[in-house]
Design brief:
This protein has eleven helices and eleven strands. With about 250 residues, the protein is an alpha/beta fold. The protein has two domains: about 110 residues, no CATH class; about 130 residues, Rossmann fold (3-Layer(aba) Sandwich). Strands 8-7-9-10-11 form a five-stranded parallel sheet. Helix 4 packs across helix 5 and helix 6 runs parallel beside helix 11. The longest helix is centred in the N-terminal third of the chain and has 15 residues.
Length: about 250
């Protein structure tokens, strides 16, 4: 139940177009619904502007199908992150309308369009092609949540002329999500070029001394560019959620 659906329901009640019993029935699962193995937070979008997103890793295909089915019944829109091919196949088989993005490992069910955010765009910047799974997770999540998204890929510090050629796009963004592995230097460079918020995402891409993304994470945390904030390693979803919250505040 999101704000738009709740307002629509209450306005219908005020006009006499629906009965109190029907309203009560529609609201009976607020604020959560207990499935035994999961408690679905139907009230989340009303509280913080973003509905419950399902973390797919560690859940069985049957559990994911049950969760997505109930969330879809309640809101008409569901996003599942970190979905493997077997779970994606089960979701698509049991729930028509599910789309799967294998590179980003995202499954989506969207029976209605999101409420579009007027502010924007979010510019997702990726250092290299190897960072694209995380960058696409961020971009697709932000789009699912109603943001206008632009992409700028393969502009890492090994060839800074590629980045400098795109300074107009960099400066036109309302929020930038900058994704990089290896030494993780790109967010600092971008942070020195723009005045908008920069959300840095370290990836686990790199050779041995990258320590699975820890080197990039520490580099980004130690950035000398003012205003750069950092999410967890490979957390494109978290970066997108942060960007959308910034845009919601600007709305």
């Amino acid at each position: 139940m999101d704000r738009a659906r709740l307002v629509e329901l209450l306005e219908a009640l005020a006009r006499g177009e629906t009965a109190v019993a029907e309203v009560v029935d529609r609201l009976r699962d607020l604020p959560f619904e207990d499935l035994g193995f999961a408690r679905l937070d139907h009230h989340r979008e009303l509280r913080n502007g973003i509905g419950e997103i399902v973390f797919g890793a560690g859940k069985s295909p049957d559990e994911l199908v049950a969760i997505v089915r109930r969330l879809a019944d309640a809101s008409g829109r569901v996003l599942v992150t970190r979905v493997d091919a077997a779970a994606a196949a089960a979701l698509a088989r049991e729930l028509p309308g599910v789309t799967y993005h294998p590179r980003a490992r995202l499954a989506m069910l969207a029976e209605r369009a999101p409420v579009a955010l007027a502010a924007g765009p979010v510019l997702v910047v990726a250092a290299g092609t190897a960072d694209l799974p995380v960058a696409e997770e961020a971009a697709l999540t932000a789009e699912f949540l109603g943001a206008r998204v632009e992409r700028l890929f393969d502009v890492g510090v090994a060839g800074l002329h590629r980045l400098f050629a795109e300074q107009v796009r960099l400066r036109s963004a309302a929020v930038l999500i900058v994704v990089a592995g290896m030494e993780g230097a790109l967010p600092s460079v971008v942070g020195g070029l723009v005045g908008a918020p920069v959300i840095a995402v370290p990836t686990s891409v790199g050779y041995g001394a990258s320590f699975g993304g820890v080197t990039a994470l520490l580099s980004m945390l130690n950035s000398c560019a003012a205003g750069v904030v950092v999410v967890n390693i490979d957390n494109g979803f978290g970066a997108a959620a942060a960007a959308v919250r910034i845009l919601q505040r600007d709305a």
